[in-house]
Specification:
heterodimer; A: 328 residues; alpha/beta; 30% helix; 24% strand; B: 329 residues; 5-stranded antiparallel beta sheet; 13 helices; 35% helix; 23% strand
């Protein structure tokens, strides 16, 4: 597999759902038959609206959600880990190597712990360090890499602004020396100026510490800026995937096009060229058969209206994959 | 010509345990009928406090300065104290849309009942009329099946639908001024585009004045006619939207624009504004932006230059310290 760090093969995640205790059990198809490969050292972007399954997929890759079918392989230097077939010992090892950064830095940090304890907790829980001295060293080292002031380590999270808190969360995620980071909407709650700062920090840490990111976001302009490869998700499916520049310059799927046109332009003279999508994302309880996007598609083909075309990606250009319904 | 709303020299201060906080200092703004004034700024810049002052919705520990005036329809809102008077502005002449529609609807009361209730308070009509006005309004904002939605609870609606219902409720009393506080921030881009278009249509149709608060300069570019950029409680730059976004003068406005990822220019580096926004408890004297200003202007750095807006081009006002810094960089 060589240069891939993560291979996601035909992964689906379903949740059981029961409206009340007498009604029939149903299945929510949160993520359907996803295939992605994340290269070592890449910044892989996952975009989509709320309810598209991006967080579920991210959590599935971390082993935090049960995978209903398919498998996820983590290619470490010496060996491969298969997430669907892992014993407790392996899972513990894997946790050291794959970490998550959350969206809301206000909710992610315990208000009763000092910054030092917050960052040190993973080391202690995973028994990575043996002495307090060693722990302190690691904490100080990662804190300075994340541009945190060493004197601040004794304080509590309430004393910090959103940007500083997010840096604390990043330090906590990185302290176990992971190789793979899932950043789930990690800049969504921040002001633009702080957002730019955190994005630059993530980039810098990537080269410094040899990290691979799965960057989940709903903000296309952010993703376009930082990611090398982007996958666009809609209702549990990837509808388009490719190198980010190619994909944003030359989007093929109608959903990607609509998303791109919906970004409010900063130029007041370019008002409202948005391709307006009718209605809202359908429920994942009963997704439309065939192409999932056809209920909102601005220009559905004759064939796909009835849902005859199944979902499936086709390579239109090297590395650029588009759902077949929109290619035909 | 008199404006629909005119805010003059407004200071808003809060008394807290740690001391008196200046949330807003010396703000002057105006909104005409059918005009959208956008207010942008980071969190903590005083955007929402300014808007809430117009409805006198700030909490009990708030104090306003004596010489401040908020003139709405030739009446000074700040002088209002009686419930009767306040009722006229809260939901009558002025309506507000919030960021989180789930938090704005009462969860255990049907949407229709909430809409009817506020109509009965403000208009001299009976329940039947109120119901038909509400349903028509729900239809107007693009809610399919309005009769069904009228009898549902807020949690049964999706995010975009709830925001539409919120807008319908705010508009049903036909306010003269609409305060929209981050109304599209919690929505997905495709839904945001729908809601922005809806708000624009409605402004055109009803000719109301709007104050549109957001931190997203892209949204401002799409909806606003005029823009005021706020930083730490002060307006540092204001003017027509085209002027502000294409020809910004103040280093803070420039910084905001440079920090914004632009999808049409992926090679541009993202440059954050250095430093952090100071706590309102130790607000810098003189120019409020000087602690983070990338182009130190020796006089401005010591805080000797007072905040004062100067007209650099017709209608385009910039803080006087910012003009000097802006020239250096």
């Amino acid at each position: 597999m060589g240069d891939n760090l993560i291979s996601v093969n035909n992964v689906s995640v379903n949740f059981d759902y029961q409206e009340n205790f007498i009604s029939k059990k149903q299945k929510i198809h949160a993520v359907n038959n996803i295939n992605i490969k994340i290269k070592k050292g890449s910044f892989f972007g996952l975009v989509g609206e709320s309810g598209s399954g991006k967080t579920t997929l991210g959590r599935a890759i971390l082993g935090a959600n049960k995978i209903s079918s398919g498998n996820v392989i983590f290619h470490d230097d010496e060996r491969d880990y298969d997430l669907t077939d892992m014993n407790k010992q392996d899972l513990k090892e894997y946790r050291k190597k794959a970490q998550l950064i959350f969206q809301d830095p206000y909710a992610a940090l315990s208000p009763r712990m000092t910054v030092r304890d917050i960052i040190a907790e993973p080391l202690e829980v995973m028994k990575i360090t043996n002495s307090r001295q060693e722990t302190d060293e690691r904490v100080r080292d990662i804190a300075s890499k994340c541009r945190l002031n060493i004197e601040h380590l004794r304080r509590f999270p309430h004393a910090f602004s959103g940007g500083q808190r997010q840096r604390i969360s990043i330090a906590r995620a990185l302290v176990s020396n992971p190789k793979f980071i899932v950043a789930d909407e990690s800049v969504a709650a921040l002001d633009v100026s702080i957002q730019a700062d955190i994005l630059n920090l993530l980039k810098q840490l990537q080269t410094e510490l040899n990290l691979t990111y799965l960057f989940i976001s709903h903000d296309l302009s952010v993703v376009a800026h930082v990611c090398d490869v982007v996958a666009v998700m809609y209702l549990g499916h990837i509808v388009e995937m490719g190198p980010s520049r190619e994909l944003f310059k030359n989007p093929k799927h109608s959903y990607t096009k609509a998303l791109l046109s919906s970004i409010p332009s900063i130029d007041p003279e370019k008002r409202s060229e948005a391709i307006e999508l009718k209605g809202e994302i359908p429920s994942a309880l009963n997704p439309p058969p065939g192409c999932v996007f056809r209920t909102r598609c601005p220009n559905p083909g004759v064939d796909c209206k009835g849902g005859e075309i199944t979902m499936g990606l086709t390579e239109v250009e090297p590395g650029h994959w588009v759902d077949q319904c929109c290619v035909l | 010509m008199s404006h629909l709303l005119e805010v003059k020299n407004l200071d808003v201060k809060f008394d807290t345990d740690e001391g008196r906080i200046t949330a807003v200092e010396n703000i002057s703004l105006s909104v005409d009928q059918g005009e959208v004034l956008g207010i942008v700024g980071e969190s903590g810049s005083g955007k929402s406090v300014t808007a809430k002052s117009i409805m006198k919705l700030n909490p009990g520990n708030t104090s306003y300065n004596e010489d401040a005036e908020i003139i709405l329809d030739n009446e000074n809102v700040l002088q209002f104290t009686s419930k009767q008077d306040l009722k006229k502005i809260r939901g009558g002449k002025v309506s507000m849309i919030f960021q989180e529609p789930m938090a704005s609807f009462a969860p255990a009361i049907k949407i229709g009942a909430q809409m009817v209730e506020q109509l009965l308070i403000h208009k001299n009509i009976n329940k039947e009329e109120a119901k038909s006005i509400s349903i028509n309004m729900l239809k107007r904002v693009g809610i399919a099946d309005a009769e069904k939605r009228f009898n549902q609870y807020a949690f049964e609606l999706s995010g975009g639908m709830r925001q539409r219902a919120m807008i319908a409720m705010a508009l049903s009393t036909m306010p003269k001024l609409l305060l929209a506080d981050e109304p599209t921030t919690a929505l997905d881009v495709t839904i945001q585009a729908q809601v922005i278009n809806l708000i624009k249509d409605i402004i055109k149709e009803y000719q109301m004045g709007v104050i549109f608060i957001t931190h997203d300069l892209g949204v401002i570019a799409q909806v606003a006619d005029h823009v005021a950029v706020m930083y730490l409680g002060s307006v540092v730059e204001k003017g027509p939207v085209n002027e502000i976004l294409k020809n910004p003068k103040h280093p803070y406005t420039k910084g905001l624009l440079q920090a914004l990822p632009d999808i049409n220019n992926l090679d541009a580096p993202l440059s954050p504004i250095p430093g952090n926004i100071p706590s309102p408890l130790d607000r810098p004297t003189g120019c409020v932006f000087r602690t983070r200003c990338p182009h130190h202007n020796p006089e401005g750095k010591d805080g000797k230059i007072e905040m004062k807006l100067i007209e650099v081009e017709p209608g385009h006002w910039v803080d006087q310290c910012g003009i000097k810094c802006g020239q250096n960089g």
